[in-house]
Amino acid sequence: MSFTTPYFTLPKFTYFKPKKLEDALSLLRQYKGKAKVMAGGIMLVNLMKERQIFPEYVIDIKGIDELKKISKTENGIKIGSAVTAIELQNSLIVRDNLPALAKAASYMGDRTLQHTVTIGGNISVGMPSTDGLPALMSMDSLLRIKSQDGERTIPASELVIGLGRTSLKDDEMITEIIVPYSSGLKGTYLKLINASEVAIATVAVSALLKERKLSVVIGAIAPRPYYFDHKSLQWKWEASLSENLKNASEIIGSNVKPMSDAVASSEYRKEVSKVLAVRALKEVFGGA
Amino acid sequence: MVVLKMKTISLKVNGITKEITVEDNELLLNVLREKLGITSVKAACWRGECGLCTVLLDGIPVKSCMTLAVETDGKEVITAEGLYSDERAKKLMESFVKHGAMQCGFCTPAFVVTSHYVLTKNPEVDGEELKKELNGVICRCGTYYQIYEAVKDAEKYYKKETKS
């Protein structure tokens, strides 16, 4: 989010609120390149107020019921892209099985905005400060993307390709998030917020442990989150936790190249990444 | 070329259903303040940070400066004015006065609306949880502690209501 003074009005556009997904996809095709999808709309409205984007058409997907479902099967948990942050926190499926995502959702803006922001919108804006993406990446989630031509499924790690840029095409939208695990996950999400800012992450770390599988994702420090697993962290399952943590912290420190911006410097972010990663790992391994 | 179409939306505001003609790009905040003259909904930051424009949309708190007016077609908006007909909310407002939970009072309507939502949902809300629930509204005078006390004190009126 930038820090310019917003206009009090929005640029002119035409608003659609389709009830069916097919209608939304056909509108996206019809007005390809001129239309924006709106779910919670917080980022979209803000960018329009700052006159950074001028969509001629806005397609509101809040009226589409199939995008607002959370379901659990043996192969994993499916979350519709228009599910709000409050719904994620209140959903028993998410709370019991995906602790990292429930915790990340509790950080998406302030409590009032959490009634509005959606998981799909949070990740598809492509901003480094997204809370959803590190949590989803640590759980090896897949994104189901649809257009009028059909659908494709990509790993969450392949969504963001640069600052504010995603691999979504103009006529595509995320319809569903698939977490390939349905139980037995230990996970957490930690976030450092600079005191002078509201809810914008300086560093965010999500960690996940599932039997002998470990992953740590560090977000908010670069356009794309950094992903580490037990292999790249050279995790020794037989060795002691403290030895592993020391080793992991060094590997993370030498592999991340954080950006410097108005919120924090590169060096500061690197140190905080190491500290938060160690804290998150301690938490998923159960204290110590 | 964007062709502008005026749309007529049906919006229930504080119990009264109104037909309002709006443009697609109008914000709910502007409609409430300028077209309907409801001035307890304050306009301050215009980008969803301060929370002073919070209203209840179908019973859920939203920031009206981030909400399009056309989105609210067929829905119900409740502002601080509308809460005055609710006995419990009246006691809540009296509690704000009793505890001196304001200096300039600019944020008070937003805090009343948000805490009414919190107490209606759970009258036995935990202290820490209550602070988190109210973190969407900013008070520049810093009367947060008094606001917290006022809401805590008003819990009893909401509890009674749920029992009967």
Search tags:
heterodimer, A: 288 residues, alpha+beta, Uridine Diphospho-n-acetylenolpyruvylglucosamine Reductase, domain 2, Uridine Diphospho-n-acetylenolpyruvylglucosamine Reductase, domain 3, Enolase-like, domain 1, 3 domains, five-stranded antiparallel β-sheet, four-stranded antiparallel β-sheet, 31% helix, B: 164 residues, Ubiquitin-like (UB roll), DNA polymerase, domain 1, 2 domains, five-stranded mixed β-sheet, 40% helix, globular
Structural summary, described in words:
- The complex is a heterodimer of chains A (288) and B (164).
- Chain A has 288 residues and is of the alpha+beta class.
- Chain A folds into 3 domains: 14-60, Uridine Diphospho-n-acetylenolpyruvylglucosamine Reductase, domain 2 (2-Layer Sandwich); 71-179, Uridine Diphospho-n-acetylenolpyruvylglucosamine Reductase, domain 3 (2-Layer Sandwich); 186-284, Enolase-like, domain 1, CATH 3.30.390.
- In chain A, 31% of the residues lie in helices and 25% in strands.
- Chain A has 10 helices and 14 strands.
- In chain A, strands 4-5-10-6-7 form a 5-stranded antiparallel β-sheet. Chain A has a 4-stranded antiparallel β-sheet with strand order 11-12-13-14, with helices on both faces. In chain A, strands 1-3-2 form a 3-stranded parallel β-sheet, covered by helices on one side.
- Chain A is globular and about 60 Å long.
- The two termini of chain A are 37 Å apart.
- By secondary structure, chain B is of the alpha+beta class.
- Chain B folds into 2 domains: 6-81, Beta-grasp domain (Ubiquitin-like (UB roll), Roll); 86-163, [2Fe-2S]-binding domain (DNA polymerase, domain 1, Orthogonal Bundle).
- Chain B contains 6 helices and 5 strands.
- Chain B has helices at 28-35, 80-83, 87-98, 108-121, 127-133, 144-163; strands spanning 6-13, 16-23, 54-57, 60-63, 76-78.
- Chain B has a 5-stranded mixed β-sheet, with helices on both faces.
- In chain B, strand 3 (54-57) and strand 4 (60-63) form a beta hairpin.
- Chain B starts with 5 loop residues before the first strand and ends with a helix.
- Chains A and B meet through helix 2 and helix 6 of A and strand 4 of B.
